[in-house]
Amino acid sequence: MNFPAALKYSKDHEWVKLDGDVCTIGVTDYAQGELGDIIYLDITADTGSEVNAGEVIGSIEAVKTVSEVYSPVSGKIIEFNSGINDNPSLVNTDPYDAGWLIKIQPSNMDELNNLLSSDDYKALIGA
Amino acid sequence: MKKTAFYNIHKSLGGKLVEFAGFEMPVQYEGIIAEHKAVRESAGIFDVSHMGEVEVRGKDAFDFVQRITTNDVSKLEKGDVQYSAMCLKDGGIVDDLLVYNFGGHYMLVINASNIDKDIKWMEENLSGDVTLKNISDETSLLAVQGKNSINILQKLTDIDLSQMEYYKFAEGKIAGQDAVISHTGYTGEKICFEIYSSSDVEKSEALWNAIMEAGKEYNLKPAGLGARDTLRLEYAFRLYGNDMDESNNTIEAGLGWITKTDKGDFNGKEAILKAKENPERKLVGFVVEDRMPARHGQEVFSGDEKIGIVTSGSLSPMLNKNIGMAYIKKGFNKTGTPVEISVRDKRIKATITKTPFLQ
User: Fold this and answer.
1) What does the DSSP 8-state code read for residue A94?
2) Which residues pair with B106 in a beta bridge?
3) What does DSSP say about strands B321-329 and A50-51: parallel, antiparallel, or unpaired?
4) pLDDT tens, B197-234?
5) Helix axis angle, B225-234 to B32-41, nearest 10°
């Protein structure tokens, strides 16, 4: 399993990448493996809406199971990966790039410090 | 938690192990969709040793099995397998099962989650010269399913599998081991076999390895319980505990075809005859008109009226559509009826569909 050092990680098995003032968010390699074949992403929060860190923003449907998607940071949802449902297996095959889920403009940059480093996340999952 | 004789093999193959019916079982190895497609396109091998097997012996064995099951055991000749159900007096389904006729005795193959319950219930219904023997723990069961399963297994056995019709079985050797091989399965594949053998770990591993080796040229893949579930759903095979339980009779579960009310008396007959006249609801198939899958337990609506409940739902990897089954109130269960399924905060559209979903 791969956990790029340049990313931050949440205990809910999501990754966060900061580019300028925008966070791109997806699920980790570990999470996609645990979920299995992903078939649908159901983001229920609206683009433009404000969310709090830890808030449920949607669900991710795999063949056997469904899991909630949490926002790892507080801020405004600016985009979600609308093309993902044409090829949801990208979350399995390319979780850190083409399989991204959502972009959020964080309202409190300090929250990013609460996230885990790659090494801390690996320790969390016992990798 | 219990382990089957193939536990170490599952681990070495990187299988994702989960608890199922008290057993630690592989839900998948490579991935459910890849395993599903391997079975449909070539062949897959499943460890289903968690299933229960009970031998029924004694001079009243026929009367006993005829009385506790809904199908007609008098039609079952030596070497035949029959799909059947066991019902309570009120018609509620205790379990669905396979009945094997060995000539001198019967073998009942029951669901893993029901082994203790079924045996207790059978014992309560015993009469005459009948003895039951639970051979579940001493039996390994492998399912090899898909069009190339015959080519793979024929390399390992003298039993002429091409002469074995659907729902027949034979006793013999496979890879040097004593086994019962039946032309049966839970995937919908027409060419499909199940192999009952000793649960000795060394023997079981040798058998698995021999089959995998013979299957190499056909790209035989190990498949887990996840693919087993999506495969059976494409053919609308019922899963006990999901699609039926003691609160359903065989008529509403769509198992009228294995319920022979003209065969004489059997457990649940009176209640089933009544249900036949006026079934309140029926288990039907549906196709979702949305990329979002329906799941077990979700409610089904027609407008504001609640008309049913989803029992199984998944993506069909072959149709690339979300399919499922649901109990639907009489009047709404006709093919083509549009319905809505409540998923979290929204309603998704679905249409009642003929089953099996795959032909």
Assistant:
1) -
2) B56, B101
3) unpaired
4) 999 999 999 999 999 999 999 999 999 999 999 999 99
5) 60
Determine the Cα–Cα distance for residues B177 and B318; give it in Å rounded to an integer. Answer: 36
Cβ–Cβ contact A66 with B under 8 A:
yes
User: Rounded to whole angstroms, how far apart are CA atoms B325 and B316?
Assistant: 12
H or E element, residue B209: helix B201-215
Contact call for residues B235 and B254 (beta carbons, < 8 A): no
Find chain B residues with C-beta within 8 A of A64's C-beta.
27-28, 32, 226, 229, 314
**A56 Cβ under 8 Å from any chain B Cβ:** no
- Burial group, residue A23, by CB count within 10 angstroms (0-12, 13-18, 19+): buried
Burial of B165 (0-12, 13-18, 19+ CB in 10 A): exposed
| C-alpha pair distances (Å), B12 with each of B8, B15, B204 | 6, 8, 15
* Cis? peptide before B317, omega within 30° of 0: no
Contact A58/B at CB under 8 A: no
What whole-number distance in Å separates Cα of residue B325 and Cα of residue A107? 45
How far apart are the CA of B314 and the nearest CA of chain A, in angstroms?
6
Report helix, strand or coil for B250.
coil
Residues of B in contact with A83 (CB under 8 A): none
pLDDT in tens, A19-60: 999 999 999 999 999 999 999 999 888 999 999 999 999 999
φ, ψ at A84 (rounded to 5°) = -65, -30
| Cα–Cα distance measured from residue B17 to residue B343, given in angstroms and rounded to the nearest whole number | 28
Residues of B in contact with A39 (CB under 8 A): 291, 293, 315, 322
Residues of chain A in contact with residue B14, where contact means CB-CB under 8 angstroms, are none
- Tell me the two tokens of residue B76: 């079952």
